[in-house]
């Protein structure tokens, strides 16, 4: 297994017989931000699974749907808040048949896509977080599931967000991410991606998403 950080919240995981890509977007799609990460090229027959945790522009890029021309074995796993109607796709020059390659997911559900076992958690912002098991490896990508502290929201709202975050993360204790902060544990996984919490009065950074590997 090889894990590659692309940029922002995008990570790529190379397994023996497939590639998983989480939350990719072109680096110039978000106003005021510039990222330089690029996806590697693979053989045309490579099995590729592209995940998008929600519709925000720094987690999802409509143009990834054009990769079907290059990779006939590509499949997409999208949060259901990503809307791609046949009319919308045609309007943007994308074959509406690409929808046949998309599995739409909602929070708090499990899915089986080929040999991927997928569980979704509910984000504390938008969309879902992904727990994925395949090839004896388990991975967790949080998307925008985070212990956010919203400036100006007050203790009541931020307290609700904190409780919701802890409620969702607790679900992982039943899986192979029992102690995600313990780097020496001997379990099949283990890789987790989280958002960095923005501290009070901290200046806005160009990119606030980071990761932790265990």
Can you offer a commentary on this structure?
The chain has 214 residues and is mostly beta strands. It has 2 helices and 12 strands; from the N terminus they run E-E-E-E-E-H-E-E-E-E-E-H-E-E. The chain has a 6-stranded mixed beta sheet with strand order 1-2-3-4-5-6, with no helix packed on it. Mean pLDDT is 80; it is low at 177-191 and 193-214.
Properties at a glance:
six-stranded mixed beta sheet, 2 helices, 214 residues, 12 strands, single chain, mainly beta
Name the helix and strand elements from N-terminus to C-terminus, one letter apiece.
EEEEEHEEEEEHEE
User: How much of the polypeptide forms β-strand, as a percent range?
Assistant: 25-35%
Query: Biggest sheet: strands, sense, closure?
Result: 6 strands, mixed
Shape: globular
Terminal residue distance:
14 Å
Helix fraction bin = 10-25%
**Count of individual beta strands:** 12
Query: Taking all residues together, what is the mean pLDDT?
Result: 80
In the predicted model, the low-confidence regions spanning at least 5 consecutive residues are 177-191, 193-214
**Secondary structure category:** mainly beta
Contiguous helical run count: 2
Radius of gyration, in angstroms, nearest whole number: 17 Å
Strand ordering within the main sheet: 1-2-3-4-5-6
């Amino acid at each position: 297994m090889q894990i590659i950080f692309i940029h922002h919240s995008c990570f790529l995981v190379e397994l023996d017989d497939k590639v998983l890509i989480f939350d990719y977007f072109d680096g110039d799609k978000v106003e005021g931000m510039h990222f330089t990460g690029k996806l590697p090229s693979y053989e045309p027959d490579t099995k590729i699974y592209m995940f998008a945790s929600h519709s925000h522009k720094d987690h999802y890029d409509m143009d990834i749907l054009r990769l079907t021309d290059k990779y006939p074995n590509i499949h997409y796993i999208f949060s259901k808040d990503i809307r791609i109607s046949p009319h919308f796709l045609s309007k943007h020059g994308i074959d509406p048949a690409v929808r046949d390659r998309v599995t739409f997911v909602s929070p708090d559900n499990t899915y089986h896509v080929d040999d991927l076992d997928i569980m979704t958690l509910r984000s504390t912002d938008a969309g879902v977080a992904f727990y994925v098991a395949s090839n004896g490896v388990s991975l967790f990508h949080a998307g925008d599931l985070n212990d956010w502290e919203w400036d100006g929201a007050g203790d009541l709202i931020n307290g609700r967000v904190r409780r919701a975050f802890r409620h969702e993360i607790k679900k992982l204790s039943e899986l192979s991410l029992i102690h995600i902060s313990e780097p020496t544990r001997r379990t099949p996984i283990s890789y987790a991606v989280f958002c960095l919490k923005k501290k009070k009065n901290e200046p806005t950074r160009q990119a606030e998403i980071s990761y932790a590997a265990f």
